[in-house]
Amino acid sequence: MKKKIFILGAGISGLSLAFYLRKRFKDELEITIFEAQNRVGGWIQTKKIKGCLFECGPRSFRVQELPLIKELGLQDALITANPHAKTKYVAKEGILYKAPDSIGSFLTTALGRKCLKALLSYPFRRKKKSGADESCQSYFHSHFGKDFTDSLINPLMAGIYAAHPEELSYQASFPSMKRGRGAKIYSFTEGMEMLPQALGGILQENILLQKKVHGIREHTHAIELLCDDGVHRGDFLFSTLSMNALRALFAEQDPLFSLLPHVPQASVVSVSLGYYEDLFSLSHKGFGFVVPSTVEKNLLGVVFDSNVFCEQNASYKTRLSIMLGGTRAPELLMLNETELIKMALSFCQKYLGQQKMADSALVTYAHKAISNYPVGHLVKLAQLENYLFKEKRRISLLGAGLYGVSVVDCIQQAEKVANNF
Questions:
Q1: Can you tell me the distance from the alpha carbon of 63 to that of 288, in angstroms, rounded to the nearest whole number?
Q2: pLDDT tens digit string along 238-284?
């Protein structure tokens, strides 16, 4: 008899896991994916408004090599970011300062010289003992100084995690970033959603949409999922849900209720603007810019989408994504779309010298979208993994809530879990 495998969540982690399980076990497993929404992909979603392509979630992925693309037949749809997308800026006092991107830029740019000064001071600074986890703020402050941390690390963490560096574990948050170093930036001709749609097409018979799970019960020889249509009984469960969402499915007396680590999640608003005309001066060519929290409370950064992937522009010359909120200003998610677009345009005026009404616009509210791994996260994760193994629990965990927030992190962790099953 085939083993019945349940997967919670049809985001990129759940879809990738199902794909790799089918690849390894062929028809030996009966796999069912439970998805509460009416679509696959999770936070990966691409929309076209008046013919303008906007990303509601991740807008690219960075990797040296990803065999899954070829396995899905997407290699012809793959596009690489323009070379000038490696240019990034940091905003301060209404001015965009170029971030260092080469050895020469450490001498020729203001931020480069600041970085060089911090690097040269490294051998003379007192540092904490290696091995102990600490916040990103603490690590970079002790290694490179306050000015370097506030000017560069603070906006960098805002751009990736929508959070302050003091809220993030260095050991859990930075390895993911280092793995992508030197890799190219990719997307697809019709946007990032082509990836989960391709997986969803292959796995269509395995996916139950709008199938919300209300509880989990584990027995010696089975695991049960409680849904509106009754109880689904299987042999093993993989969850890609956030820790808060998963914890709510267990009874309080279950040890997992207290063992699941607390992982805060940042909420963001993305205001996407499209223009038929080119609003950029040559000095603004690049990927975009991020902003220190000491400079702007509400603004995390701006992505110059039309500069990064020109192939997606169609009849539009300028596409921008203004990222707002995060842990700096969670109250922004209470504003309506008109208020948010007005705020986004004011930042465009301040930093890009443009406040023209867009020809196309989209506001995306992303509630609890980005996991913020706190100090000690990896220790708690190891304790959780050890418990699941020793107690032979019929559940395994993966996804952005625990193992890395990038699209590639999720795919690679899913492959690892499938290969170890």
A1: 20
A2: 999 999 999 999 999 999 999 999 999 999 999 999 999 988 765 67
Element (H, E) at 233: strand 230-234
Rounded to two decimals, the pTM is 0.93
Instruction: Decide if pLDDT at 376 tops 80.
Output: yes
Element (DSSP H or E) covering residue 412: helix 407-420
- Provide the pLDDT for residue 102: 65
Nearest-angstrom CA–CA distance, 136 and 340: 30
Strand partners, 364: 270
On whether the CB atoms of residues 51 and 275 are closer than 8 A, the answer is no
Give exposure, 235-255, as e/b (b: 16+ Cβ within 10 Å).
bbbbbbbbbebbbebbeeebe
Q: Which residue type does 366 have?
A: A
Structure token digits, residue 37: 């929404």
Name the DSSP letter for residue 313: -
Pairing of strands 318-325, 29-34: unpaired
d(CA 249, CA 243): 10
Per-residue tokens: 110: 């203001």
The CA distance from 46 to 39, in Å, is 12
Other C-beta atoms within 10 Å of 158: how many?
Answer: 26
Residues contacting residue 286 through CB under 8 Å, at least 6 positions apart? 84, 85, 86, 87, 88, 89, 98, 304, 307
Element housing 274 (H / E): strand 265-275
Is residue 232 within 8 A of residue 32, CB to CB? The reply is yes
214: how many CB neighbours lie within 10 A of its CB?
A: 10
| Rounded Cα gap, residues 40 and 15, in angstroms | 8
Query: Which residues have a Cβ under 8 Å from the Cβ of 313 and sit 6 or more positions away?
Result: 53, 306, 319
**Per-residue pLDDT reduced to its tens digit, 327-337:** 999 999 999 99
Whether residue 177 has pLDDT greater than 70: no
Interval 144-175: pLDDT, tens: 899 889 999 999 999 999 999 999 999 999 87
Distance CA 66, CA 195 (A): 12
